[in-house]
Each structure stands twice: as C-alpha cells, then as structure tokens.
Fold this protein.
Amino acid sequence: MTESVAARSVTEAVGTRVRLAFIDNLRWTMILLVISMHAADTYSPLGNWYYVDRSPLSTPVLLTFAAWQTYLQSFFMGLLFFVAGVFVPASFDKKGPRLFLRDRAFRLGMPVLLYTFAVGPFTEYFVSHSWTASDSTFAREWWIHLIDGEFLGMNGPLWFCLALLIFSTVYAALRMWRGATPPAPESDAPPGTAALVCMAFAIAGAGFALRVVLPSGLTIMNMHVSDFSQYIALFIAGIVVARHGWLPKLSFALGMRWLLIVLPIGFAAWLALFASRSSTDRWHWQAAGFAVWESFTGVALSFGLLVLYRERFNTQGRLARYLSDNAFAVYVFHPPIVIMGARIMHGTTWPPLVKFVLLTVFAVVVTFALSSAAFRRIPLLRAIV
C-alpha cells in the first residue's frame, strides 16, 4: 500500500532531532485527559484523589463518570508508554549506554524528585490538607512522612516518569548484555489484525492474572501493579515498531476499523459488564470479561488514535506549539491547581457533571498559564520540565 504524505514525513524523523508534530499533539492531548481524569476523581466515587467533593449520584450521572473514567484508564497512559518506547532505541543507539542512562536519570528522575520532595508535600499540606494534624507544622509533617518511608509513594502523577525510568534502565541493561542489535529489516509488513488481537489477549490474560494473584489494589511507589501488563506491552511495542520502521506504515484504514468497532460495540459490551458486575470475587467471569474489554479497548484506541493523529493532526499552529511546549510542566504541576479549583466550587449547588467540566477547564487554563508565565521561566525548573 502506498504511504500517505503524512506517513512519509515520519520516516526520517524517528532517530533524529526532528519533532514529530502528531506525536507532540498526542502527548498534550493525553495530558489534557489526565487533568480531566483527576477532575472526575474529585466528584466520582470510582477513583482516588487527594481531595474529593462527592455527593450521591443518579444512575445516569454515575454511568457517565464510569464510562469516561474506565475508557480513559483503558488507554491513555498505555499510549504514552508506547510513544516513549518508540524513541528509546534511536536514543540509545545515538548516545550509548552511559549517556543514555544519564540523560534518562536527569529527564525522568529529576521531575520525580521535584514532585516527591516539593510539589507533592506542598499539595498535601497547604492545598488538599490531607496531612491533617492541626497542631503540626509543615516541616514536622514532612519529617514524619520522610522517616516512616511514606514519601516513597508520594510521587503523584510522576509515577509515570518513575516507571519509564525503570523501563529504560532495563532496556539499557538488556542492550548492554546482548551487545549491538542489528536494525530490523524495514521491509517487514507492519502488524495487522491478527497481531493486534494476540496482543490484546496477552495483555488481558496477564492483567487478569495479576489482579487474581496480587492483593487487591496493590501499589508500589504509587504504581498500580495490576495495570503494568498493558504498560510493559505497549512500551515494548513502541520499541519494536521503531526497530522495524513501522511507524509511518501502520495502516490508517485498519486503525479506523478498530475505532469503529471499539466505540459502538465496545460500549455495548461495557454497559453489559457494568450492569452485571454484582460479584467482587476476582475469579468471577465479569472480572475476566472486564480484563478482555479493557485490553481490547486500550489496544484499539491506542492504535486508532496513533494513525489518526499521524494522518490528520501532523501539523502545529501557534496554539498547538504552545500546548506542546508547556504540556510536561502542566503534567507536573496540575494537581494543586485541580484541588484549588475544586475548593473554589465547594459548596455550590451545581450538578456534579457541570462541576467536573468547569474544573477541567479551570485547571487546564490556569496550569498552562502558570507554566508559560512562571514555571518555565525559572531557569532550574525550565531545565527539569
């Protein structure tokens, strides 16, 4: 099949310093969705967040929140891991193991430390008031959480950077152990339906097994272990796609077919699973069914959005460049802004869905404005975010 103009423009960019506009657009889109997820967590009973302002919800409102949150959870972080994986092989080849690891440690490790030791504690004590001792100072509370080891799980949304640092370190170790890796032939056909189906089933099986074997809700350093079957698989998929030169060759038509399947048929399946989920037994068939639904939805949305953005959103105007430049700083600093917005609206009688939308818009506008006007103008912060 002949490549499109948009696809051909990708071929020379991976492995160079050339920015891929559609990748940048995907990144800032996913970060906007992260903010919306945390806004939803504020009002929905289905998520965990620093500060919640919850009230009884009608069935339609609960279904709306549940659909939004479960669909987002099925793909948005996995897609970010895939995108990160795409650029890992070329970066390692260019820099070598020592420089690659040093660069990863700075670009990923420093934001984790910034959040763990500054942004997170500030948010806990001054904004969400989740450090609740009324007769204690900030310094004392921070010291208590430091010596009892709780700070290890206080990386907030920066768990993503920590996980990516671990993945990158494992990749570098494997590359050093195996020696030079010859480039894969770029003439190979990109993955089709069979490969995507096999990948979705593998993710579902591993995810279901993790949920059955591990304690419910197990987190390690704020990382939900049961979700990592998808994250690891998509990170590896990004590496494989890059090695084979498949990024510009992934079928746009196939991606659109998967989206058309997962949206109407997948939503009907989700409704059936949600309505029938009466058992909390992790061996129950609904748990297995949801694992399959989540993995197929995640693969479909990730693949579909990837090729859709490559073909239709591979340019940037002034607004898109602004969003791209500030997206990571917004990812780091958005939690206290989301909480501040929720506190401002606390006590209003507006419907929860209205509050959710307004909170999302407020957090996006204010955090991007603060990023461009303040955070990224401070030299040390600019070097990190």
Summary: Strands lie at 219-220, 223-224. The first strand starts at residue 219 and ends at 220. The two ends are 40 Å apart (CA to CA). The chain has a mean pLDDT of 90.
